[in-house]
Amino acid sequence: METLLEVRNITMRFGDLVANDHVSLTCKKGSVISLLGENGAGKTTLMKVIYGMHTPQSGEIWFEGKQVTMRSPKTAIGLGIQMVHQHFMLVNHLTVAENIVMGEEPKRYGLFSKKRALQAVETLSRTYGLQIEPSQLVGGLSVGAKQRAEILKALYHGAKLLILDEPTAVLTPQETQELFKVICRLRDDGKSVIIITHKLHETMQIADEIYVMRHGKMVGHVQKADTDVQALTRMMVDHELEPFIKTPCQAGQALLELRDLSCRSAEGAMVLRGVDLTLYAGEIYGLAGIEGNGQQELEEILSGIRQDWTGNYTLLGANAAGKGVRQLIDMGMSCIHADRHDRGLLLDLPVPENVMLGYQHRPELRTKYGFLNQQAARKMSEEIVAHYRVFPTALENTARSFSGGNQQKLVVGRELYRKPKVVLIAHPTRGVDVGVSEIIHKSILELRAQGAAILLITADFDELFKLSDRIGVIYEGKIVTKGGSGAYTPNRLGLYMGGGSDETI
Q1: Residue 89 and residue 192 share a domain
Q2: pLDDT for position 111
Q3: For the chain, which residues score pLDDT lower than 70?
């Protein structure tokens, strides 16, 4: 098989941090490569070097048999290299078609032709089985649809090599399988794909070759046929994971109750429709659903961000109506939001400021004179960084400088640090490696053992079944089914998430 891309001895430093240490990688035409590694291992940095976003201190990049200098993403795109980032690069107020053709707009009589743009996107969509409505505004799309738009944009602009950064992190199992079908079509069409991921079972399903990075070095390269999940885990984390032990649920009193909770979108559409939900002390309630079915609105209401709702919301026996974020925190609520950039972090501030975020009014973070207690914030930061293996460890680093997984560690650590009574956790291990997922899951179970009531919103079926004592499915703003975790199979759950029922099984 002919070589498409060859990376030779790439070294990339950020100050004293060596993100890539003489890293090499080869990608053949018409192949799928999985790039594995713990958070901060240097995976995304390497891909950004290939994509022209970083200029390495040393090393070579060869593409289609020629040595190239990646001066910018424009250079990479011109060669046929495209990258779909974890956080999508789309313009919400433009249509799907307008986003896809941007930079190479079809014209008629020297002017942008909307009709030709729509036709081009429709043709490309049919070719690769990427279903999407070209005329729809991007801002109204589901996460899965936005990803399809990003992939179509890459293909429209002539991708020969497609780099996908954590592509399944926000997808349901059904959406993941659809994505894998697309990747197989791309491979059959002679295109190459590099996937950055932490999901080992998915790697074993879709990859042809697997590379493993650890601490900035490439420590492993194997053919899929020559390895297994256990061997890949050992390469990634350099130690055996401890057995997962979950004790039986000992549910106590009701700590959170929702009755007939409803709200509308800004456009007036009903997005939550009479939600009834009770969370008990000492249990984890897992809520499954395709994104866009009311999870975000529920998250905003429970955390105090959103007040335009009707119904009843009781927290620890007290009426939570009209309570803002700070008041709910003081009552014992903690929230890990789905969007760590928008709701979880101040990206341009260092670690201690982010660790205090939302809790800066609490007495433990104030001096006796009412000023912020920087010493207490640093102590808290040091404990979180050590426990959750945040890398790099320097507290002066801004949140923006961390990888997505290490950003998530900071958010999770902050919200679980004070052992809250009620916790809303949305996608806690999104973009997090297998070793840290283990730590986060154990932390959640420790809270459960201490009597906390936990609402877990996740698209990860393994996580859902692993942690949940009860499971509910939200569809079109309503919880349509609920029961013990043993009452479901992944297929049955996926059916409910898509609007099916017991009659359609």
Answers
A1: yes
A2: 82
A3: 170, 172, 238-242, 501-505
Instruction: Output the pLDDT for position 192.
Output: 96
Q: Name the residue type at position 44.
A: T
Q: Is residue 455 a part of any domain in this protein?
A: yes
13 token code pair:
């430093």
Closest CA to 282 of 312, 303, 320, 256: 256
Helix (H) or strand (E) holding 303: helix 295-303
Please give the Cα distance from 223 to 209 (Å, whole number). 5
Contact 297, 263 (CB under 8 A): yes
Q: Which pLDDT does position 505 carry in this prediction?
A: 44
**329 and 464 part of one domain:** yes
Those residues with Cβ within 8 angstroms of residue 86's Cβ, 6 or more apart along the chain or in another chain: 165, 166, 169, 404, 431
Separation CA 154–CA 329 (nearest Å):
43
The sign of the dihedral angle between the CA atoms of 337, 180, 154, 135 is: negative
Q: Which residues contact 41 (CB under 8 A, 6 or more apart)?
A: 213, 214, 215, 216, 433
The Cα–Cα gap between 342 and 340 comes to 6
- State both tokens at 25: 């990688």
Which class for 109: exposed (0-12), middle (13-18), buried (19 or more C-beta within 10 A)?
Answer: exposed
Instruction: With residue 152 as reference, give the H or E element that holds it.
Output: helix 143-156
Per DSSP, the residues of 26-48 read EEETT-EEEEEE-TTSSHHHHHH
Domain total of the chain: 2
Instruction: Summarize pLDDT for 70-104 with one digit per residue, the tens.
Output: 999 999 999 999 998 877 888 888 998 999 998 88
- Give me the CATH number covering residue 497: 3.40.50.300
Reported as half-sphere exposure (CB side, CA atoms, 13 A), residue 329 has a value of 19
Residue 479 contacts residue 496 (beta carbons within 8 Å):
no
